[in-house]
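Researcher: Last one for today. Full complex below.
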Amino acid sequence: MKSPWKFLGLLVGAFVFLFPFYYMLVGSLQAEPDPSVGGAFPSPGNLTGHNYAEINAAINLGRSLLNSGIFTGGVILGTLVFGVLAGYALARLQFRGRGAVFNLVLLVQVVPFQLLTIPLYVMIVRSYGLADSYLGMILPFAINSTAVFVFRQYFLQLPQELFDAARIDGAGELAILWRVAIPLVKPALLTGVLLTFIGPWNEFLWPFLITKQQDLQPLAVSLSNYLTTVSARAANPFGAVLAGACVLAAPAVALFVIFQRRFISSSLESGVKG
Amino acid sequence: MSKRTGVLGKVLGKQPIGSLFVTPYVVFLAAVFAYPLGFAVYMSFHDYFFTAPGAIVERPFVGFENYATMLSDPAVRRSFVNVGIFLLINVPLTVVLSLLLAYALNGAVRWRGFFRVSYYVPYVTASVAVVGVWLFLFNSNGLVNSVLGPLAPDPSWLVNSNLAMPTVAIYVTWKQLGFFILLYLAALQNVSKDLYEAASMDGAGRIKSFWNVTVPGVRPATTLVVLLATVTGANLFTEPYLLTGGGGPDGASASPVLIMYQRGIEQGNPDIGAAIGVLLVVGVLILALVERRFVGREN
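Model: Here's the assembly. Have a good evening.
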């Protein structure tokens, strides 16, 4: 359609969506915070990398990033291994209880995680003593029902003849999954991984609850602690906060921009059409 | 294995190894979903408190006492009103803006990829990160107020008890809109082109055909958007915790999950916290049923 106001609307929208990110970057590089309109345009004299040094001194960016990485990596690994197994079985194997398990997959997505927060906290922190550990952080997210559902949709799209042929050749199910099914849905699995990445990388409440030790906190948690406690004492607190925000935002945004076509195509549509 | 038929095949299915494949998932659901769910309900009806691991103590059944205590707490009642205000702003705004933007994007030929990326970027970014910018933009001498000049509210956005919750609601709408735009984009693919042609044959203008073809055509997606926005909205925690310094001013932006965290974990009353959680979920389920009734009525 050729209506110019539609294009204009989209432009205004894009500005509203992107401006805070631009401002985040500019603010993180300013020596003196400048909240006036002019402050949105960086002046060379006011630019510095000092805010990054300051936030790094306050919360040890490297260590926090490593923690975020381990947390996210653990969640992705669990999601992939167990999610692919379950998704494949639900799509391609006929076994007793398949319908019941599939109904569980759908049911689980309706109950909000927050209801489970208090009992999970009691179980994981108080009963199992997993506070301040990577395992305790990863455990509640180790298998993702949405991912199981999405993987199932991918495997469903493969032609049945492939599986029949492999079975006639005498291949075991694990071998069929590994040699036939996974190679065919590899690009789609990457989408699954990318979508799973966003969750733990940005997750705040759970790691916030169970990590009190600073050297085990993911970046989102240490940054929020800095935001609520230390920032009042820093010379340019907003600069330091924005510098930390840039470090936290960069990996997710970069991955998304690089792989944006994959995010958008198959997975969501298969999810919507269910 | 492939040739398993007969009685055994009937009982176990053709590929019984499938049950082995789903075992980790089912065990996980039992341990991290079903058990805590039951545990939450149990806690909410008992006098439950934190003890040293392994200590054996009485947890007497107290009926609805935790619920009564929780409901007589003005901060809890306030938090439920707050989340109501939040949903009243967030849900309609989300539906209208994401449908309009998806509609415009669907018709756009130029810069499609750029627009999609820009709308989706806030969604993929951690709330903790973008909250920092919003604090900077919306504090009393921030950029927004310096643009507004004399129109700037006093006290400013996030410390104003009438504006704090609406500001949080607008922040969350902005943050999540990209995801809902994508849902609508997928749904728009399914609206038949013939219907638009028929509408223009009948002399319908652009607005009329949007209203009579697009809106009903994406109704299933609208149901989904409304439900998802409600569920995520009810889970609100990070944004009021960070944007308004723990639900200020004076509890005006405290959400039920925030209060649940304060009562349950900070103040050591997990039974009260669990009761808030149960009430919240029951409330969301009722709301979801009502919304389904109204939004999804033609399906």
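The two ends of chain A are 29 Å apart (CA to CA). Chain A touches chain B through 99 residues (CB under 8 Å).
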